[in-house]
């Protein structure tokens, strides 16, 4: 687990410089957020070997494997997944998780953020720079380590959280469906393409995630571009981005387009990376035309 140094906005009205993480510095666990019926046979087998049923897979947070950190799962058979009552007999956790996209140098971060949501000891929360996010959500050391009460945020649905609380939740890799304990069928994807913020500036959904007040920039913010980050999957899953987004760079000039770009030669244009998420009405076959 690495520590982070990102400027995050966890104040209601101003940006505060904090040593903290943003969810989108950690690679998105795309396969884990894919509904069971869309998994390959190999991925379903790997998930089953970790103890998942289809119901548990489609409802994040309900399977015991997700309650253990990466370290605990690779060091011990933490929840006796093989049923032999041997705590020290480790199942091939890394083999199965690698088939579910948890690979490379950031695999531990991916699991601990997107799946486990940093259920560390308080001292580790401090060490890894996550304290500002937890305190913004109202947690104290006594609450966390000793079970002495809990913050008001724990009883709130996503839409009841303040902007600062939502931003803190995103640091811990919670987006609206995960926070509200909804099914994977309620999830959707951000556009991976940068969008045009001003004549000379372009931004990404990673930038939006650092302060969710940015979802409402000038009343025409990235609600339809950064659906996952902004918590607008409920009503925007199949809506095209309303922003102008980066198509390519040509002759040192960035070319921006809107989703009308896909109205002609649709199949060819929709085959470009990120178009399914950016212009789902034309490019995502699961969305009605």
Based on DSSP secondary structure assignment, what is the total number of beta strands? 6
The amount of beta strand, in percent, is 5-15%
Spell the H/E element sequence.
EEHHHHHHHHHHEEHHHEEHHH
Helix content: 25-40%
Q: How confident is the prediction overall: mean pLDDT?
A: 86
Shape: globular
Across the major sheet, the strand order is: 1-2
The value of Rg in angstroms is 20 Å
Cα-to-Cα separation, first versus last residue: 43 Å
Main beta sheet strand tally, sense and closure: 2 strands, antiparallel
Class inferred from helices and paired strands: alpha+beta
How many helices?
16
Stretches where pLDDT falls below 50 for ≥5 residues? 1-23
What is the multimeric organization of the chains shown? single chain
Tell me the domain tally. Answer: 2
Mind sketching the topology for me?
Elements: E1 6-8, E2 16-20, H1 41-49, H2 54-58, H3 70-75, H4 93-98, H5 107-115, H6 122-127, H7 131-136, H8 141-146, H9 163-171, H10 176-179, E3 195-196, E4 202-203, H11 205-209, H12 227-230, H13 233-236, E5 245-250, E6 253-257, H14 266-270, H15 275-278, H16 280-283
